[in-house]
Design a protein that fits this description.
The protein is of the alpha/beta class. Helix content is 42%, strand content 16%. The strands form two sheets. A seven-stranded parallel β-sheet has the order 3-2-4-1-5-8-9, sandwiched between helices. A two-stranded antiparallel sheet has the order 6-7. The chain starts with 14 loop residues before the first strand and ends with a helix.
């Protein structure tokens, strides 16, 4: 990645991560929050935009986190965040405003068909689609034959993302890294799990997404919500059991699997020359 060193340098553009799935209950908000906190814990500046202005799960999680930090008088690395309930143009303005302040922007989208969420997906550098490990969730991106479980056709969502990625590459030369995140994997290999995995592998070759393991179904993720803590806040969680330690390792592997780029210095326009 080249540095902007001339007087006509472009403003700093943060890496944009969008968590998107039109189906609810896939662990989208949980993985979004943990990704944001994991980056903040590395002293990377992060801005979070919650597009689900009805449920506000991510915003509520981070509000709880801020309350815990004040109540316990502790320092908890956190992103800045806001809820956006406007249109696509308004979202672009929010992104532009954050661009001079943070190195990464993370957007959580609602679990429903939403035009602003679609627009956010087209702006992503990294597009993350969490899904539960079942054919119910797989149906969002592809349909399989009921007899042999081979992929019959792409779903509307896959076609939409395929066209968005082509348009983005044609417009500004940026390749959207589409990542399908397999959440709630079972620890014991099951026939259905293997079938879903095989179908994902087949579809990934046709559509061009990557598949990485996500987080297992664990009570700890629901228990942490009221406090806003994450499994990365090990100094504030008390004694952890074996399952908690395993969950933390899953989280670290998930973050590594996203293969995010090194954060770039925040520079703006001509200031880039002196900052390079």
């Amino acid at each position: 990645m080249t540095s902007a060193t001339n007087t006509g340098a472009s403003p700093h553009v943060p890496h944009l991560i969008v968590f998107a799935n039109e189906k609810g209950g896939t662990g989208k908000s949980t993985t979004c929050v943990h990704t944001a906190v994991a980056l903040a814990a590395q002293k990377i500046s992060v801005g979070v935009i919650d597009l689900d202005y009805r449920q506000r799960t991510v915003a509520r999680y981070l509000e709880n986190r801020a309350d815990t930090a004040r109540r316990r008088e502790i320092d908890l690395p956190s992103p800045i965040w806001q809820v956006h309930d406007g249109d696509a143009d308004g979202l672009d303005e929010v992104i532009a405003d954050l661009s001079g302040k943070v190195q990464f922007i993370i957007i959580d989208t609602p679990g429903r068909d939403d035009p602003v969420a679609r627009h956010a997906a087209t702006r992503a550098n990294t597009l993350v689609t969490p899904m539960n490990d079942s054919f119910v969730d797989f149906d969002l991106i592809g349909q399989v034959d009921p007899e042999n479980f081979k992929v019959k056709r792409l779903s509307f969502y896959s076609e939409l993302m395929w066209e968005a990625r082509k348009a983005r590459a044609k417009t500004d030369g940026i390749q959207i890294d589409w990542v399908v995140l397999r959440n709630r994997l079972h620890h014991m290999e099951a026939r259905n799990q293997k079938r879903v995995g095989d179908a994902l592998t087949e579809l990934s070759k046709r559509v061009g997404f990557r598949v990485i393991p996500g987080l297992s179904e664990r009570v700890i993720f629901r228990e942490l919500f009221p406090s806003g803590l994450t499994l990365l806040d090990k100094g504030h969680l008390g004694e952890l059991g074996v399952s908690h330690i395993a969950a933390r390792q899953e989280l670290r592997e998930m973050i590594a699997g996203l293969a995010l780029p090194q954060p770039q210095p925040i520079v703006a326009g001509r200031a880039a020359q002196s900052a390079a």
